[in-house]
Specification:
- By secondary structure, the protein is of the alpha/beta class.
- An eight-stranded mixed sheet has the order 5-4-3-2-1-6-8-7, sandwiched between helices. The protein has a six-stranded mixed sheet with strand order 11-10-9-12-14-13, sandwiched between helices.
- The longest helix has 25 residues.
- It is globular, with a radius of gyration of 21 Å.
- It starts with a strand and ends with a helix.
Length: 399
């Protein structure tokens, strides 16, 4: 019987999230996280399928040491990285540009192209590359598969992907809208169709991926036709620390009047804006607590967040023409009932209604929160990016 396990790695600048899955049974054999890599207080948290969570703290110098620690934990459970049951290692790669429209087996050419895209994903692609190279050293005999956040959005028509700037300049510097969170949008749009008892090609879905990073997508018949993030993950919705949409002239104004450098503005818009810029908090639970206590800054932050979200729902309704479902996902989307209620409030004319009792119920699986007779379904669909990466990796290796 052929190998059926896939190890999924999501390498950040100072962390590695991982899952080991058996694709024959679609079961998780282990999940874990290594964080604070490069610090004396590094931490590894590992949970086997049939056992208690184990935690370890100490110094983990680099990603190489992190993956060796992961391998040691997996070996303790009898599912080591050296197992012949391991079919491939799947890697999340944030930016694939226009070059990568589907999962790809990594070779030197692929690595070079991912590296060439670092200027448009400076926070993510370097860490993704480090994870791939470290895994190659650990198991040079195994296929390493890159699954790209941008790939799902490559089906956008040029009318949605193009910015209205000089074409020659845009092409020279690869300036266009790429979109991100693609594995989540792909998984959730399909899971929403399944929840409705329909095939993905028969369903139009607006997916709202709401976490610290947030994005929306318009999915027609299983294919993305528009998404809110652009050249980088800065565009679109209000996020935890990112501004989302703003007049580009704000940047020139801050340079000329505020005498701020490009790096200072970059830091402002990516790390000191969004919810944290508006009220000093980027945790929606804390913001809602403050709103309930009458805090006006928190109320402003929440209102700006919801206003932007509602605008995108309306815009993507127009793009799709007809909508079968709106799906909320990710940390905020799955857990913040007040966000879901506020985002849909006032959209009854579009057939969008939330049932208060259904919305208040917490659950682990996909569920409808709209009334039974609603014209458009409103759903909460937990995302599973690791399963999506494993599924795409295993399908590619199988082919």
């Amino acid at each position: 019987m052929s190998p059926s396990r896939v190890l999924v790695l999501n390498s950040g600048s100072s962390s590695v999230k991982y899952q080991l899955l058996d694709m024959r049974e679609h079961s998780r054999l282990a999940v874990g996280l290594v964080e604070r890599i490069g610090e004396e207080t590094s931490r590894l948290k590992h949970t086997p399928a049939d056992g208690e969570t184990r935690e370890w703290s100490g110094a983990i110098a680099d990603h190489g040491a992190a993956l060796k620690a992961v391998a040691a934990e997996l070996a303790r459970d009898g599912v080591g990285v050296d197992s012949p049951e391991l079919a491939a290692i799947g890697h999340r790669v944030v930016h694939g540009g226009q070059s990568f429209t589907e999962p790809t087996v990594v070779d030197d050419t692929v690595l070079a192209e991912i590296e060439r895209l670092i200027p448009v994903a400076p926070l993510h692609n370097p860490a993704n590359l480090t994870g791939i190279r470290t895994a190659q050293a650990l198991r040079p005999d195994l296929p390493q598969v890159a699954v790209f956040d941008t790939a799902f959005h490559t089906t956008m028509p040029e009318s949605a992907a193009r910015y209205a700037i000089d074409v020659a300049t845009a092409d020279r510097y690869r300036v266009r809208r790429y979109g991100f969170h693609g594995t989540s949008h792909a998984y959730v749009s399909r899971a929403t169709a399944e929840l409705l008892g329909k095939a993905p090609e028969d369903v139009n879905v607006i997916v709202l991926h709401l976490g610290n990073g947030a994005s929306a997508s318009a999915v027609r018949g299983g294919r993305c036709v528009d998404t809110s993030m652009g050249l980088t993950p800065l565009e679109g919705l209000v996020m935890g620390t990112r501004s989302g949409d703003l007049d580009p002239a704000v940047i020139f104004h801050l340079m000329r009047v505020g005498e701020m450098s490009a790096d200072e503005i970059d830091t402002l818009l990516n790390k000191k804006s969004g919810l944290i810029g508006l009220c000093g908090d980027n945790d929606m639970r804390e913001i809602r607590r403050r709103v309930d206590e009458g805090d006006e800054q928190a109320r402003l932050a929440f209102d700006v967040y919801i206003h932007r979200l509602k605008k995108y729902i309306g815009a993507y309704y127009a793009v799709l023409g007809t909508v079968d479902a709106i799906a909320f996902t990710a940390g905020v989307g799955e857990n913040a009932a007040p966000v879901r209620e506020a985002a849909i409030a006032g959209l009854e004319g579009l057939g969008l209604v939330v049932d208060g009792e259904l919305n208040a119920v917490r659950g682990d699986g996909p569920r409808l929160i709209s009334p039974e007779d609603a014209r458009v379904a409103v759903a909460v669909v937990p995302t599973d990016e690791e399963l999506e990466i494993a599924t795409q990796t295993y399908a590619l290796v199988g082919r």
